Structures are given as structure tokens and as C-alpha cells.
Amino acid sequence: MIDPKDYFDAALLLHGHRCPAMPLGLRAGAAAMNALGVERSGAGTLEAILELGDGHFAHCYADGVQMVTGCTFGKGNIRKLGYGKFGLTLVDRSTGRAVRVVPRTEKQLASKQTVFFTEYRTKGIPPTDVPAEVVQPLIDQVMRAPDEALLRVGPVIEHSVHTKAEDFDSFVCDRCGEMVVARYGRQVGDQRVCIPCQEAIDAAR
Ligand SMILES: [Zn+2]
Ligand SMILES: [Zn+2]
Q1: 60: nearest Cα among 99, 90, 16, 93
Q2: What is the CA(200)–ligand 1 centre distance, in A?
Q3: Considering every ligand atom, which ligand is closest to the CA of 22?
Q4: What residue ranges define each of the domains in the chain, with the CATH number in brackets?
Q5: How far apart are the C-alpha atoms of 193 and 174, rounded to whole Å?
Q6: Minimum-distance ligand to the CA of 191?
Q7: What's the pLDDT at 79?
Q8: pLDDT in tens, 119-174
Q9: Are 176 and 164 contacting, i.e. CB atoms less than 8 angstroms apart?
Q10: Distance of alpha carbon 197 from alpha carbon 184, whole angstroms
Q11: pLDDT at residue 27 is higher than 90
């Protein structure tokens, strides 16, 4: 069993401000891991598929998911589907099993009625400027609520897994002299170049 509370301080350090959405991501990620019966892994055995879009409320959710699951941008085992939704599907690549977890609609609706949203966030006040007495009770609620009050945890299902072998091939761009992963190289005349250099050469034509 993974306890999301154990990851709160580290998640706050990663995330940079207090808000209720990051803790919600901690809870969702932990609930998914516990449903699958998996441990946090430093390797890429877990994969997180988020339904988030870009630049919308509660996007901070993703950082809670990253921290607790260990699925990170750097390891490349987290991605977004761009649906503007809050579902998280966590895949265990070692067994091909997955579970989808989604915050309960009524909880998200209630959260949008709080002063944190109505008096601060929707008025353009950055989360770093919201007083602690406004945001801390929301964080406490998210961290203390039982899973079933906060989240819908779907059944564990089969999930196809496509793992690409890590690519070690590289070359040095003939134009800028920087390192490039080989399959991103472009041939322009007799030069082997990176994509930005190819675009610069094309633009100058
Ligand atoms: Zn946040
Ligand atoms: Zn280049």
C-alpha cells in the first residue's frame, strides 16, 4: 500500500505552491497504485495517461500524479490526451493491467464553489498569493477524505503495452554543432542537420 501523505512534502517542493489540485493528483495516483497493487518504481514500469488539456483550472493535478507514481516527464512515462478532463489511467507495463481513476464530479463542483476559486483563482490571483487560511483547509480536506468520497476507482482491466527500446544513436549537427538523436536528423544537400537548422535553411531559401 502506498500512502499519499508520505509524498506530500516532496510534492509541495516539486510543485511550488499550495493548492487543492496537486494533492488531488497525489490521492488519484495512490488510489490507482493501490488498485493495481504496485509499488512506486524508479524504472519505467508504470505509465500514467492523463486526460488533461492545456492551461486550464486544476491542471496542478498532474504534479501530484507525477510525484506519487514516479511517472515523470523526464522518464517519458507520463502523457496527456488533451481531453480537458481529470481521468488518470495508470498502466502496469510489467503485467499489462491498468485502472482508471477519476475525481468525483460532485467534489470537483463543490471545489469550484470555494472562495479559493471564486475570490482568488478565477480573478486571476496566482496560487502563490492566496492566503494560507484560504487554501490549507481545502488541502486538508483532500488529504483526509476517504478514497471513495473523493474518487471513482474503475475496475482493473487489460491494457496493451508498447514499450520502445531506449534509443542511443546520435550525431552532431553539421550546422549548429549540437548533439541530436539520430532519428531526428534531416538531410539537406550533403549536410546532416537538426530540425531547427533544417527549418532555418528552408526559411532562408
Ligand atoms: Zn497548484
Ligand atoms: Zn543544428
Answers
A1: 16
A2: 37
A3: 1
A4: 4-158 (3.30.1330.20), 170-204 (no CATH)
A5: 6
A6: 2
A7: 96
A8: 988 999 988 999 999 999 999 999 999 999 999 999 999 999 887 788 999 999 99
A9: no
A10: 12
A11: yes
Cell 508504470 belongs to residue: 46
Closest ligand to residue 11's CA: 1
Q: Which residues lie near ion ligand 1 (Cβ < 5 Å)?
A: 19, 22, 60
User: How far is ligand 1, taken at its centre, from the CA of residue 26, in Å?
Assistant: 12
Mean pLDDT across 98-118: 93
Question: 3-state SS string over 59-89?
Answer: CCHHHHHHHHHCCCCCCCCEEECCCCCCCEE
Interval between CA 103 and ligand 1 midpoint (Å): 16
Q: State pTM to two decimals.
A: 0.90
pLDDT greater than 90 at residue 42: no
Distance of CA 6 from the midpoint of ligand 1 (Å): 18
Q: What is the mean pLDDT of the chain?
A: 95
- Unique residue bearing C-alpha cell 517519458: 76
CA of 190 to the centre of ligand 1 (A): 49
